[in-house]
Amino acid sequence: MTAAPSPNRDRRSLENLHRVSIAIVIIAVIATFWRSCGHEFVAGWDDQQLIYANPLINPPTPQGLVKLWQQPHARMYIPAVYTTWWGLAKIAQVPGAPAGTAASLNPWVFHAANLLVHLACALIVLEILRRLIKHESASLVGALIFALHPLQVEPVAWTTGMKDLLCGVFSLLAIWQYVTCATVTTKRRWLHYAIAAFALVIALFAKPAAVVVPFIVILIDGLVIGRSWKLVAHSALPWIALMIPCLIWTTRSQPTPELVAPPVLQRFIGAANALGFYLFKLVWPARLGIDYGLRPGVIEHTRWWIALAVAVVLVAIARERRIIAGLLIFVLGVAPVLGLTPFVFQNYSTVADRYVYLSMLGVALAVATLVAQHPRPQVGIVCVVVIIALAVRSFLQVEVWANDETLMRHALTVNPNSPAANNNLGILYFTRGDYPTARKYYATAVASQPSNLPARDNLAAALIHLERVDEAIALMKETLALRRKLPPALKQPIEADLSRLAELLMSRGRCEEAGAYLEELARLRPRDRDVRRRLDEAIQAIARRSATRPA
To answer: What are the start-end ranges of the H helices in 301-434?
Structure first.
Protein backbone atom coordinates (compact mmCIF):
# COMPACT_ATOMS: atom_id res chain seq x y z
CA MET A 1 0.00 0.00 0.00
CA THR A 2 1.51 3.28 -1.11
CA ALA A 3 1.63 6.24 1.24
CA ALA A 4 -0.25 9.39 0.31
CA PRO A 5 2.01 12.25 -0.81
CA SER A 6 2.76 14.61 2.02
CA PRO A 7 1.56 18.23 1.94
CA ASN A 8 5.19 19.38 2.12
CA ARG A 9 6.06 17.36 -0.98
CA ASP A 10 3.07 18.79 -2.86
CA ARG A 11 4.09 22.27 -1.81
CA ARG A 12 7.65 21.72 -3.00
CA SER A 13 6.36 20.38 -6.31
CA LEU A 14 4.20 23.44 -6.81
CA GLU A 15 7.10 25.73 -5.92
CA ASN A 16 9.36 23.96 -8.40
CA LEU A 17 6.68 24.19 -11.08
CA HIS A 18 6.33 27.89 -10.36
CA ARG A 19 10.08 28.39 -10.70
CA VAL A 20 9.90 26.67 -14.08
CA SER A 21 7.07 29.04 -15.11
CA ILE A 22 9.13 32.06 -14.09
CA ALA A 23 12.12 30.76 -16.03
CA ILE A 24 9.98 30.17 -19.15
CA VAL A 25 8.57 33.71 -19.01
CA ILE A 26 12.04 35.22 -18.61
CA ILE A 27 13.53 33.20 -21.47
CA ALA A 28 10.56 33.82 -23.79
CA VAL A 29 10.51 37.59 -23.23
CA ILE A 30 14.26 38.01 -23.69
CA ALA A 31 14.36 35.74 -26.76
CA THR A 32 11.52 37.69 -28.39
CA PHE A 33 12.57 41.25 -27.64
CA TRP A 34 16.36 41.20 -27.15
CA ARG A 35 17.05 42.68 -30.61
CA SER A 36 15.44 45.95 -29.54
CA CYS A 37 18.46 46.65 -27.30
CA GLY A 38 20.60 47.28 -30.37
CA HIS A 39 18.24 49.81 -31.92
CA GLU A 40 18.77 53.54 -32.33
CA PHE A 41 16.66 56.38 -30.99
CA VAL A 42 13.70 57.19 -33.24
CA ALA A 43 14.12 60.94 -33.59
CA GLY A 44 11.00 61.53 -35.64
CA TRP A 45 8.71 59.74 -33.21
CA ASP A 46 9.18 61.65 -29.92
CA ASP A 47 12.55 60.24 -28.79
CA GLN A 48 14.28 63.48 -29.78
CA GLN A 49 11.79 65.89 -28.24
CA LEU A 50 11.16 63.97 -25.03
CA ILE A 51 14.53 62.39 -24.28
CA TYR A 52 17.88 63.26 -25.84
CA ALA A 53 17.02 66.82 -26.95
CA ASN A 54 15.06 67.54 -23.78
CA PRO A 55 17.21 70.05 -21.82
CA LEU A 56 15.65 68.90 -18.55
CA ILE A 57 16.96 65.36 -19.13
CA ASN A 58 20.07 65.74 -21.26
CA PRO A 59 22.28 66.72 -19.57
CA PRO A 60 20.73 65.38 -16.34
CA THR A 61 21.07 68.13 -13.75
CA PRO A 62 19.45 68.53 -10.30
CA GLN A 63 17.72 71.70 -11.54
CA GLY A 64 16.25 69.80 -14.47
CA LEU A 65 14.97 67.06 -12.18
CA VAL A 66 13.16 69.61 -10.00
CA LYS A 67 11.52 71.22 -13.04
CA LEU A 68 10.33 67.83 -14.28
CA TRP A 69 8.11 67.64 -11.20
CA GLN A 70 7.12 71.32 -11.23
CA GLN A 71 5.71 71.62 -14.74
CA PRO A 72 4.48 69.60 -17.73
CA HIS A 73 6.73 69.11 -20.74
CA ALA A 74 5.40 68.69 -24.29
CA ARG A 75 1.84 68.90 -22.93
CA MET A 76 2.40 65.90 -20.66
CA TYR A 77 2.76 65.84 -16.90
CA ILE A 78 4.36 62.43 -16.41
CA PRO A 79 7.14 63.18 -13.89
CA ALA A 80 7.70 59.52 -12.94
CA VAL A 81 8.62 58.73 -16.56
CA TYR A 82 10.77 61.83 -16.99
CA THR A 83 12.56 61.01 -13.73
CA THR A 84 13.25 57.50 -15.03
CA TRP A 85 14.70 58.90 -18.26
CA TRP A 86 16.70 61.42 -16.22
CA GLY A 87 18.24 58.57 -14.22
CA LEU A 88 18.92 56.51 -17.34
CA ALA A 89 20.56 59.55 -18.94
CA LYS A 90 22.98 59.62 -16.00
CA ILE A 91 24.06 56.10 -16.91
CA ALA A 92 23.91 56.49 -20.69
CA GLN A 93 26.11 59.61 -21.03
CA VAL A 94 28.65 59.31 -23.85
CA PRO A 95 31.86 61.23 -22.92
CA GLY A 96 32.83 63.98 -25.33
CA ALA A 97 29.58 64.01 -27.30
CA PRO A 98 27.66 67.31 -27.47
CA ALA A 99 24.66 67.39 -25.11
CA GLY A 100 21.24 67.43 -26.69
CA THR A 101 22.18 65.15 -29.58
CA ALA A 102 21.41 61.49 -30.17
CA ALA A 103 25.13 60.73 -29.97
CA SER A 104 25.32 62.05 -26.39
CA LEU A 105 23.27 59.17 -24.96
CA ASN A 106 23.67 55.44 -25.47
CA PRO A 107 20.26 54.16 -26.66
CA TRP A 108 21.15 50.65 -25.46
CA VAL A 109 20.59 51.73 -21.85
CA PHE A 110 17.07 52.98 -22.58
CA HIS A 111 16.06 49.97 -24.67
CA ALA A 112 17.40 47.54 -22.06
CA ALA A 113 15.39 49.38 -19.39
CA ASN A 114 12.23 48.99 -21.48
CA LEU A 115 12.85 45.28 -21.84
CA LEU A 116 13.41 44.81 -18.11
CA VAL A 117 10.25 46.72 -17.17
CA HIS A 118 8.20 44.65 -19.65
CA LEU A 119 9.69 41.49 -18.16
CA ALA A 120 8.66 42.68 -14.70
CA CYS A 121 5.12 43.27 -15.99
CA ALA A 122 4.93 39.74 -17.41
CA LEU A 123 6.08 38.22 -14.10
CA ILE A 124 3.55 40.28 -12.14
CA VAL A 125 0.78 39.12 -14.49
CA LEU A 126 1.88 35.55 -13.80
CA GLU A 127 1.49 36.18 -10.05
CA ILE A 128 -1.93 37.82 -10.49
CA LEU A 129 -3.21 34.89 -12.54
CA ARG A 130 -1.86 32.33 -10.06
CA ARG A 131 -3.91 33.96 -7.30
CA LEU A 132 -7.05 34.30 -9.42
CA ILE A 133 -6.95 31.07 -11.45
CA LYS A 134 -5.04 28.78 -9.07
CA HIS A 135 -3.71 26.76 -11.99
CA GLU A 136 0.00 27.00 -12.75
CA SER A 137 0.00 25.93 -16.40
CA ALA A 138 -3.01 28.07 -17.27
CA SER A 139 -1.43 31.06 -15.51
CA LEU A 140 1.76 30.53 -17.50
CA VAL A 141 -0.18 30.50 -20.78
CA GLY A 142 -1.97 33.73 -19.84
CA ALA A 143 1.26 35.45 -18.82
CA LEU A 144 2.94 34.44 -22.10
CA ILE A 145 -0.01 35.76 -24.13
CA PHE A 146 0.34 39.06 -22.27
CA ALA A 147 4.11 39.21 -22.74
CA LEU A 148 4.52 38.03 -26.33
CA HIS A 149 1.53 39.40 -28.22
CA PRO A 150 2.65 41.60 -31.16
CA LEU A 151 0.54 44.51 -29.88
CA GLN A 152 3.08 44.75 -27.03
CA VAL A 153 6.01 45.38 -29.39
CA GLU A 154 5.47 49.12 -29.72
CA PRO A 155 5.90 50.05 -26.02
CA VAL A 156 8.83 47.65 -25.62
CA ALA A 157 10.81 48.48 -28.77
CA TRP A 158 10.13 52.23 -28.70
CA THR A 159 12.24 54.18 -26.21
CA THR A 160 9.42 56.61 -25.50
CA GLY A 161 7.20 53.59 -24.81
CA MET A 162 8.60 53.66 -21.27
CA LYS A 163 5.60 55.81 -20.30
CA ASP A 164 3.25 52.93 -21.15
CA LEU A 165 5.54 50.35 -19.54
CA LEU A 166 6.09 52.31 -16.33
CA CYS A 167 2.38 53.01 -16.00
CA GLY A 168 1.80 49.33 -16.73
CA VAL A 169 4.24 47.92 -14.18
CA PHE A 170 2.97 50.09 -11.32
CA SER A 171 -0.68 49.54 -12.31
CA LEU A 172 -0.11 45.77 -12.35
CA LEU A 173 1.78 45.98 -9.06
CA ALA A 174 -1.19 47.82 -7.55
CA ILE A 175 -3.61 45.19 -8.87
CA TRP A 176 -1.41 42.31 -7.65
CA GLN A 177 -1.07 43.72 -4.15
CA TYR A 178 -4.79 44.56 -3.99
CA VAL A 179 -5.65 40.99 -5.00
CA THR A 180 -3.21 39.68 -2.39
CA CYS A 181 -4.81 41.87 0.25
CA ALA A 182 -8.27 40.63 -0.72
CA THR A 183 -7.33 36.94 -0.71
CA VAL A 184 -5.17 36.54 2.42
CA THR A 185 -6.23 36.55 6.04
CA THR A 186 -2.94 37.44 7.72
CA LYS A 187 -2.52 40.49 9.93
CA ARG A 188 -0.21 42.05 7.32
CA ARG A 189 -3.02 42.54 4.83
CA TRP A 190 -2.77 46.30 5.41
CA LEU A 191 0.82 46.25 4.13
CA HIS A 192 -0.29 44.81 0.78
CA TYR A 193 -3.01 47.46 0.56
CA ALA A 194 -0.52 50.24 1.37
CA ILE A 195 1.88 49.00 -1.31
CA ALA A 196 -0.99 48.83 -3.79
CA ALA A 197 -2.09 52.41 -3.07
CA PHE A 198 1.47 53.71 -3.36
CA ALA A 199 1.94 51.87 -6.66
CA LEU A 200 -1.28 53.41 -7.99
CA VAL A 201 -0.01 56.91 -7.20
CA ILE A 202 3.24 56.26 -9.08
CA ALA A 203 1.27 54.80 -12.00
CA LEU A 204 -0.78 58.00 -12.18
CA PHE A 205 2.45 60.03 -12.25
CA ALA A 206 3.63 57.82 -15.11
CA LYS A 207 0.53 58.12 -17.29
CA PRO A 208 -2.99 59.38 -16.56
CA ALA A 209 -4.44 56.24 -18.18
CA ALA A 210 -3.92 54.57 -14.78
CA VAL A 211 -7.23 56.13 -13.69
CA VAL A 212 -8.87 52.89 -14.84
CA VAL A 213 -7.04 50.78 -12.23
CA PRO A 214 -9.62 51.34 -9.42
CA PHE A 215 -12.37 50.10 -11.72
CA ILE A 216 -10.27 47.09 -12.75
CA VAL A 217 -9.79 46.02 -9.13
CA ILE A 218 -13.50 46.51 -8.48
CA LEU A 219 -14.24 44.08 -11.33
CA ILE A 220 -11.68 41.57 -10.10
CA ASP A 221 -12.79 41.83 -6.48
CA GLY A 222 -16.49 41.54 -7.20
CA LEU A 223 -16.59 39.14 -10.15
CA VAL A 224 -13.48 36.98 -9.73
CA ILE A 225 -12.65 36.96 -6.01
CA GLY A 226 -16.35 37.18 -5.19
CA ARG A 227 -16.29 39.35 -2.08
CA SER A 228 -19.41 41.29 -1.14
CA TRP A 229 -19.88 44.58 -2.95
CA LYS A 230 -19.89 46.32 0.41
CA LEU A 231 -16.34 45.13 1.07
CA VAL A 232 -15.36 45.99 -2.50
CA ALA A 233 -16.62 49.54 -2.09
CA HIS A 234 -14.84 49.90 1.25
CA SER A 235 -11.53 48.87 -0.36
CA ALA A 236 -11.76 50.56 -3.75
CA LEU A 237 -13.55 53.86 -3.14
CA PRO A 238 -10.47 55.57 -1.61
CA TRP A 239 -8.64 54.75 -4.83
CA ILE A 240 -11.31 56.46 -6.91
CA ALA A 241 -10.68 59.61 -4.86
CA LEU A 242 -7.07 59.55 -6.15
CA MET A 243 -8.40 60.03 -9.67
CA ILE A 244 -9.68 63.55 -9.03
CA PRO A 245 -6.31 65.37 -8.76
CA CYS A 246 -5.02 63.27 -11.68
CA LEU A 247 -7.92 64.38 -13.89
CA ILE A 248 -7.29 68.00 -12.89
CA TRP A 249 -3.57 68.03 -13.70
CA THR A 250 -4.16 66.07 -16.92
CA THR A 251 -6.75 68.56 -18.13
CA ARG A 252 -4.49 71.49 -17.33
CA SER A 253 -1.27 70.05 -18.78
CA GLN A 254 -2.71 68.36 -21.87
CA PRO A 255 -5.08 70.83 -23.53
CA THR A 256 -6.34 69.91 -26.99
CA PRO A 257 -7.69 73.20 -28.35
CA GLU A 258 -6.76 72.19 -31.91
CA LEU A 259 -9.23 69.28 -31.75
CA VAL A 260 -12.92 69.96 -32.21
CA ALA A 261 -14.82 67.17 -30.48
CA PRO A 262 -17.42 65.56 -32.78
CA PRO A 263 -21.06 65.36 -31.68
CA VAL A 264 -21.67 62.99 -28.78
CA LEU A 265 -23.32 60.29 -30.89
CA GLN A 266 -20.45 60.35 -33.36
CA ARG A 267 -17.97 60.00 -30.50
CA PHE A 268 -19.70 56.85 -29.28
CA ILE A 269 -19.71 55.45 -32.80
CA GLY A 270 -16.00 56.25 -33.11
CA ALA A 271 -15.31 54.60 -29.75
CA ALA A 272 -17.10 51.43 -30.88
CA ASN A 273 -15.10 51.51 -34.11
CA ALA A 274 -11.85 51.84 -32.15
CA LEU A 275 -12.80 49.01 -29.80
CA GLY A 276 -13.62 46.79 -32.77
CA PHE A 277 -10.23 47.69 -34.27
CA TYR A 278 -8.43 46.53 -31.12
CA LEU A 279 -10.40 43.30 -30.93
CA PHE A 280 -9.61 42.51 -34.55
CA LYS A 281 -5.89 43.22 -34.10
CA LEU A 282 -5.95 41.09 -30.97
CA VAL A 283 -7.02 38.07 -32.97
CA TRP A 284 -5.19 38.92 -36.20
CA PRO A 285 -2.11 41.04 -35.33
CA ALA A 286 -0.97 41.80 -38.88
CA ARG A 287 -0.13 45.15 -40.52
CA LEU A 288 0.74 46.82 -37.23
CA GLY A 289 1.90 50.42 -37.52
CA ILE A 290 2.40 53.70 -35.69
CA ASP A 291 -0.28 55.70 -37.51
CA TYR A 292 -3.47 53.98 -38.60
CA GLY A 293 -5.06 57.24 -39.71
CA LEU A 294 -8.30 56.70 -37.79
CA ARG A 295 -8.73 60.30 -36.76
CA PRO A 296 -12.04 61.56 -35.30
CA GLY A 297 -14.82 61.15 -37.81
CA VAL A 298 -13.01 58.45 -39.82
CA ILE A 299 -15.12 55.29 -39.69
CA GLU A 300 -14.17 52.41 -41.97
CA HIS A 301 -13.15 48.75 -42.15
CA THR A 302 -16.36 46.89 -41.39
CA ARG A 303 -14.40 43.84 -40.15
CA TRP A 304 -13.73 45.83 -36.96
CA TRP A 305 -17.46 46.12 -36.40
CA ILE A 306 -17.76 42.38 -36.94
CA ALA A 307 -15.07 41.84 -34.28
CA LEU A 308 -16.99 44.04 -31.85
CA ALA A 309 -20.25 42.20 -32.56
CA VAL A 310 -18.58 38.82 -31.97
CA ALA A 311 -17.15 40.07 -28.65
CA VAL A 312 -20.58 41.27 -27.52
CA VAL A 313 -22.06 37.86 -28.34
CA LEU A 314 -19.27 36.11 -26.40
CA VAL A 315 -19.95 38.26 -23.34
CA ALA A 316 -23.66 37.54 -23.62
CA ILE A 317 -23.22 33.76 -23.71
CA ALA A 318 -20.30 33.51 -21.29
CA ARG A 319 -21.18 31.79 -18.03
CA GLU A 320 -17.77 32.09 -16.38
CA ARG A 321 -17.43 35.32 -14.41
CA ARG A 322 -13.64 35.37 -14.87
CA ILE A 323 -14.06 35.45 -18.65
CA ILE A 324 -16.59 38.26 -18.42
CA ALA A 325 -14.23 40.13 -16.08
CA GLY A 326 -11.35 39.62 -18.54
CA LEU A 327 -13.31 41.07 -21.45
CA LEU A 328 -14.47 44.02 -19.35
CA ILE A 329 -10.90 44.67 -18.17
CA PHE A 330 -9.84 44.80 -21.82
CA VAL A 331 -12.47 47.45 -22.51
CA LEU A 332 -11.63 49.42 -19.37
CA GLY A 333 -7.93 49.50 -20.25
CA VAL A 334 -8.55 51.37 -23.51
CA ALA A 335 -11.58 53.37 -22.32
CA PRO A 336 -9.64 56.66 -21.78
CA VAL A 337 -8.37 56.61 -25.37
CA LEU A 338 -11.41 55.46 -27.32
CA GLY A 339 -12.15 59.04 -28.35
CA LEU A 340 -15.03 59.84 -26.02
CA THR A 341 -12.90 62.77 -24.87
CA PRO A 342 -10.25 64.38 -27.11
CA PHE A 343 -6.57 63.60 -26.59
CA VAL A 344 -3.42 64.84 -28.33
CA PHE A 345 -2.56 61.77 -30.42
CA GLN A 346 -5.91 62.03 -32.20
CA ASN A 347 -4.12 64.49 -34.49
CA TYR A 348 -2.72 61.29 -36.01
CA SER A 349 -5.03 58.47 -34.97
CA THR A 350 -7.50 57.53 -32.25
CA VAL A 351 -6.00 54.03 -32.04
CA ALA A 352 -2.45 52.89 -31.28
CA ASP A 353 -0.92 49.53 -30.34
CA ARG A 354 0.53 50.83 -27.06
CA TYR A 355 -2.91 51.77 -25.74
CA VAL A 356 -3.80 48.11 -25.13
CA TYR A 357 -0.79 47.40 -22.89
CA LEU A 358 -2.73 47.25 -19.62
CA SER A 359 -5.80 45.85 -21.38
CA MET A 360 -3.83 42.70 -22.17
CA LEU A 361 -4.26 41.70 -18.52
CA GLY A 362 -7.93 41.06 -19.33
CA VAL A 363 -6.96 38.91 -22.31
CA ALA A 364 -4.51 36.96 -20.15
CA LEU A 365 -7.22 36.37 -17.52
CA ALA A 366 -9.78 35.17 -20.07
CA VAL A 367 -7.31 32.87 -21.84
CA ALA A 368 -5.99 31.42 -18.56
CA THR A 369 -9.55 30.72 -17.42
CA LEU A 370 -10.36 28.86 -20.65
CA VAL A 371 -7.18 26.78 -20.40
CA ALA A 372 -7.87 25.92 -16.77
CA GLN A 373 -11.41 24.80 -17.66
CA HIS A 374 -10.17 22.51 -20.46
CA PRO A 375 -7.02 20.76 -19.18
CA ARG A 376 -6.65 18.45 -22.18
CA PRO A 377 -3.50 17.66 -24.21
CA GLN A 378 -5.07 19.05 -27.38
CA VAL A 379 -5.63 22.40 -25.65
CA GLY A 380 -2.00 22.42 -24.52
CA ILE A 381 -0.80 21.80 -28.09
CA VAL A 382 -2.95 24.64 -29.41
CA CYS A 383 -1.58 26.96 -26.72
CA VAL A 384 2.01 26.11 -27.59
CA VAL A 385 1.39 26.69 -31.31
CA VAL A 386 -0.37 30.03 -30.69
CA ILE A 387 2.32 31.26 -28.29
CA ILE A 388 5.13 30.35 -30.70
CA ALA A 389 3.28 32.08 -33.57
CA LEU A 390 2.82 35.24 -31.49
CA ALA A 391 6.47 35.19 -30.40
CA VAL A 392 7.71 34.84 -33.99
CA ARG A 393 5.40 37.63 -35.17
CA SER A 394 6.63 39.90 -32.36
CA PHE A 395 10.26 38.98 -33.05
CA LEU A 396 9.85 40.14 -36.65
CA GLN A 397 7.91 43.27 -35.65
CA VAL A 398 10.72 44.33 -33.28
CA GLU A 399 13.03 44.91 -36.25
CA VAL A 400 10.62 47.52 -37.64
CA TRP A 401 11.77 49.80 -34.79
CA ALA A 402 15.49 49.63 -35.64
CA ASN A 403 15.75 53.30 -36.70
CA ASP A 404 13.83 56.20 -38.18
CA GLU A 405 13.93 54.98 -41.75
CA THR A 406 12.82 51.39 -41.12
CA LEU A 407 9.99 52.58 -38.87
CA MET A 408 8.69 55.24 -41.24
CA ARG A 409 8.91 53.05 -44.33
CA HIS A 410 6.98 50.35 -42.53
CA ALA A 411 4.42 52.94 -41.40
CA LEU A 412 3.73 53.78 -45.05
CA THR A 413 3.01 50.13 -45.83
CA VAL A 414 0.19 50.33 -43.26
CA ASN A 415 -0.99 53.88 -44.02
CA PRO A 416 0.54 55.38 -47.22
CA ASN A 417 -0.97 58.79 -46.39
CA SER A 418 0.48 59.00 -42.88
CA PRO A 419 1.49 62.68 -42.45
CA ALA A 420 4.00 61.80 -39.73
CA ALA A 421 5.75 59.06 -41.71
CA ASN A 422 5.84 61.10 -44.92
CA ASN A 423 7.18 64.16 -43.12
CA ASN A 424 9.88 62.18 -41.31
CA LEU A 425 11.02 60.42 -44.47
CA GLY A 426 11.14 63.83 -46.14
CA ILE A 427 13.46 65.04 -43.36
CA LEU A 428 15.76 62.06 -43.92
CA TYR A 429 16.05 62.75 -47.64
CA PHE A 430 16.42 66.48 -47.07
CA THR A 431 19.40 65.93 -44.77
CA ARG A 432 20.95 63.74 -47.50
CA GLY A 433 20.55 66.52 -50.05
CA ASP A 434 17.94 64.67 -52.11
CA TYR A 435 15.52 67.60 -52.33
CA PRO A 436 13.22 66.25 -55.09
CA THR A 437 12.45 63.10 -53.07
CA ALA A 438 12.11 65.14 -49.89
CA ARG A 439 9.63 67.44 -51.63
CA LYS A 440 7.55 64.45 -52.73
CA TYR A 441 7.21 63.13 -49.18
CA TYR A 442 6.55 66.59 -47.72
CA ALA A 443 3.86 67.25 -50.32
CA THR A 444 2.10 63.98 -49.45
CA ALA A 445 2.17 64.88 -45.77
CA VAL A 446 0.66 68.32 -46.43
CA ALA A 447 -1.97 66.91 -48.79
CA SER A 448 -3.10 64.34 -46.21
CA GLN A 449 -3.07 66.85 -43.33
CA PRO A 450 -3.13 70.48 -44.50
CA SER A 451 -2.94 71.76 -40.90
CA ASN A 452 0.44 70.05 -40.33
CA LEU A 453 2.57 73.17 -39.90
CA PRO A 454 6.00 71.45 -39.57
CA ALA A 455 5.38 69.57 -42.82
CA ARG A 456 4.37 72.83 -44.54
CA ASP A 457 7.56 74.53 -43.31
CA ASN A 458 9.63 71.60 -44.53
CA LEU A 459 7.94 71.60 -47.91
CA ALA A 460 8.68 75.32 -48.32
CA ALA A 461 12.35 74.71 -47.51
CA ALA A 462 12.53 71.94 -50.13
CA LEU A 463 10.89 74.18 -52.74
CA ILE A 464 13.46 76.90 -52.05
CA HIS A 465 16.34 74.45 -52.53
CA LEU A 466 14.72 73.40 -55.82
CA GLU A 467 14.58 77.11 -56.83
CA ARG A 468 10.80 77.09 -56.92
CA VAL A 469 10.73 80.23 -54.82
CA ASP A 470 7.35 81.60 -55.92
CA GLU A 471 5.67 78.32 -54.94
CA ALA A 472 7.47 78.46 -51.60
CA ILE A 473 6.29 82.02 -51.00
CA ALA A 474 2.66 81.12 -51.72
CA LEU A 475 2.89 78.12 -49.37
CA MET A 476 4.54 80.17 -46.62
CA LYS A 477 1.78 82.80 -46.81
CA GLU A 478 -0.83 80.08 -46.30
CA THR A 479 1.16 78.64 -43.40
CA LEU A 480 1.46 82.05 -41.76
CA ALA A 481 -2.30 82.48 -42.03
CA LEU A 482 -2.80 79.10 -40.32
CA ARG A 483 -0.39 80.05 -37.52
CA ARG A 484 -2.30 83.25 -36.89
CA LYS A 485 -5.49 81.19 -36.40
CA LEU A 486 -4.03 78.84 -33.80
CA PRO A 487 -5.85 78.79 -30.45
CA PRO A 488 -4.19 80.91 -27.73
CA ALA A 489 -2.89 77.79 -25.93
CA LEU A 490 -1.00 76.78 -29.08
CA LYS A 491 0.12 80.18 -30.31
CA GLN A 492 3.54 79.99 -31.99
CA PRO A 493 5.97 82.86 -32.71
CA ILE A 494 5.54 84.19 -36.23
CA GLU A 495 8.69 86.34 -36.34
CA ALA A 496 10.67 83.68 -38.22
CA ASP A 497 7.89 83.36 -40.80
CA LEU A 498 7.75 87.12 -41.33
CA SER A 499 11.53 87.41 -41.64
CA ARG A 500 11.87 84.55 -44.11
CA LEU A 501 8.94 85.73 -46.22
CA ALA A 502 10.36 89.24 -46.39
CA GLU A 503 13.77 87.91 -47.43
CA LEU A 504 12.32 85.78 -50.21
CA LEU A 505 10.05 88.56 -51.46
CA MET A 506 12.99 90.96 -51.62
CA SER A 507 14.97 88.41 -53.61
CA ARG A 508 12.12 88.31 -56.14
CA GLY A 509 11.89 92.09 -56.32
CA ARG A 510 8.52 92.21 -54.58
CA CYS A 511 9.57 95.01 -52.27
CA GLU A 512 6.11 96.32 -51.38
CA GLU A 513 5.04 92.95 -50.02
CA ALA A 514 8.35 92.52 -48.24
CA GLY A 515 7.97 95.95 -46.67
CA ALA A 516 4.55 95.05 -45.24
CA TYR A 517 5.94 91.95 -43.52
CA LEU A 518 9.00 93.86 -42.27
CA GLU A 519 6.78 96.57 -40.78
CA GLU A 520 4.88 93.91 -38.83
CA LEU A 521 8.16 92.34 -37.76
CA ALA A 522 9.43 95.74 -36.60
CA ARG A 523 6.35 96.14 -34.42
CA LEU A 524 7.04 92.77 -32.83
CA ARG A 525 10.76 93.52 -32.42
CA PRO A 526 10.95 97.29 -31.91
CA ARG A 527 14.56 97.17 -30.65
CA ASP A 528 15.93 94.89 -33.35
CA ARG A 529 18.31 97.06 -35.41
CA ASP A 530 18.69 94.43 -38.11
CA VAL A 531 14.95 94.42 -38.75
CA ARG A 532 14.92 98.23 -38.91
CA ARG A 533 17.84 98.17 -41.36
CA ARG A 534 16.10 95.66 -43.61
CA LEU A 535 12.90 97.70 -43.50
CA ASP A 536 14.82 100.82 -44.53
CA GLU A 537 16.35 98.88 -47.42
CA ALA A 538 12.91 97.76 -48.54
CA ILE A 539 11.56 101.33 -48.35
CA GLN A 540 14.53 102.61 -50.35
CA ALA A 541 14.04 99.90 -52.97
CA ILE A 542 10.37 100.84 -53.28
CA ALA A 543 11.33 104.50 -53.69
CA ARG A 544 13.89 103.67 -56.39
CA ARG A 545 11.39 101.61 -58.30
CA SER A 546 8.81 104.41 -58.06
CA ALA A 547 11.35 106.92 -59.35
CA THR A 548 12.22 104.81 -62.38
CA ARG A 549 8.63 104.21 -63.44
CA PRO A 550 7.55 106.25 -66.51
CA ALA A 551 5.14 109.10 -65.81
So the answer is: 302-317, 321-334, 360-373, 377-398, 404-414, 419-431
d(CA 60, CA 83): 10
Distances (CA, A) of 521 to 286, 474, 490: 51, 19, 20
SS3 for 529? helix
DSSP 8-state assignment for residue 295: -
Q: Give the model confidence (pLDDT) of 88-123 as tens digits.
A: 999 998 888 887 788 889 999 999 999 999 999 999
Lowest-confidence range among 246-250, 383-387, 422-426? Answer: 246-250
| Residue 189: predicted pLDDT | 84
17 three-state secondary structure? helix
For 517-532, b where at least 16 C-beta lie within 10 A, e where not — what string? bbeebbeeeeeeeebe
Contacts of 374 (CB under 8 A, 6+ apart): none
For every residue of 49-103, DSSP letters joined together read IIIIT-TTTSS--HHHHHHHHHS-BTTB--HHHHHHHHHHHHHHB-TTSPTTSGG
User: How far is residue 27's CA from residue 144's CA, in Å, rounded to a whole number?
Assistant: 11
What are the phi and psi torsion angles at 97 (to 5°)?
-85, 140
The type of residue at 506 is M
Residue type for position 541 = A
What is the C-alpha separation between 72 and 69, in angstroms, rounded?
A: 8
- Give the span between the Cα atoms of 538 and 164, in whole angstroms: 53
**pLDDT above 90 as % of the chain:** 48
**What domains appear along the chain, each with residue ranges and CATH number?**
7-401 (no CATH), 416-492 (1.25.40.10), 495-551 (no CATH)
Distance (Å, whole) CA 499 – CA 538: 13
User: In 3D, which of 66, 48, 60 has the Cα closest to residue 90?
Assistant: 60
pLDDT band for position 228 (50/70/90)? confident
- How many CB atoms lie under 10 A from the CB of residue 183? 16
